Amino acid sequence: SKYKEYLLNKKTENEEQLLLHNFEDIINLPTLTSICSLDDLYNNKYLITNLEFVETSDSAFVTLNMENLLPKFFNGNYYFHIKHISCEQFSDNKTKTDNYEYKLLFGKIKKCTLKFFYKDYKNYYYLPNEDMAIHKSMATFIDKDKKIKATKDNCYTKVTDTFISLPDKPFLQKKYTTDDDSIFEEIKIFKDDNNSSYIRLSELNKKDFLISFINYILK
């Protein structure tokens, strides 16, 4: 090795090569150690400081405050993009630390009409003229020639609202309640004609759900 060769002959040329190699290792070490900060991102070690909806780009952004700097090459996964926007110094009598702010693009906003599918389709009837399904308790008031037994494919109702897209992977539904609207008793998943998944944008106004949602897409 170069090191053993240097010990034998003490040549300046070998010494310079060894020092250059060590110098490059030290210079690149901060970049490598920043990889450890990914653990903070994936284990919820951040503070959500702002939620922003940009209508011109139909995008939703959230600002994350973190103690550690993320790697420069890190740009999220297939679903989101993250950008370093600022660094602020916080100090007291004992310590001085840097906090880093990142803007996370985590979904596309869509104003449209989507379908909400009922799971227990056997208890529903489909109304072809209205293109919607209703529960069998309501269907008793509808003429027989204007209704048919619902199937998995047509057991839905249409909802017009502002939605945000979900990653193309299983989404675990959790129950959340509000005092003003029973429709938020659970997080409902809506579908478009391409079977892509969405939730109401208004769901993100619930702080606990927003945190869970961000944690979900980061993993």
Task: Indicate the topology.
Layout: H1 2-9, H2 12-33, H3 38-42, E1 47-54, E2 59-66, E3 81-91, E4 96-117, E5 124-127, E6 132-135, H4 136-139, E7 148-149, E8 156-165, E9 190-191, E10 197-200, H5 207-218
Antiparallel strand pairs: 1-2, 2-4, 3-4, 4-8, 5-6, 5-7, 8-10, 9-10
Helix pairs in contact: 1-2
Protein architecture, described:
The protein has five helices and ten strands, in the order H-H-H-E-E-E-E-E-E-H-E-E-E-E-H. By secondary structure, it is of the alpha+beta class. Strands 1, 2, 3, 4, 8, 9 and 10 form a seven-stranded antiparallel sheet that branches. Strands 6-5-7 form a three-stranded antiparallel sheet. Helix 1 runs antiparallel to helix 2 (12-33).
Features:
single chain, 219 residues, alpha+beta, seven-stranded antiparallel sheet, three-stranded antiparallel sheet, 10 strands, 34% strand, elongated
Concise summary:
The chain has five helices and ten strands. With 219 residues, the protein is α+β, with helices and mostly antiparallel strands.
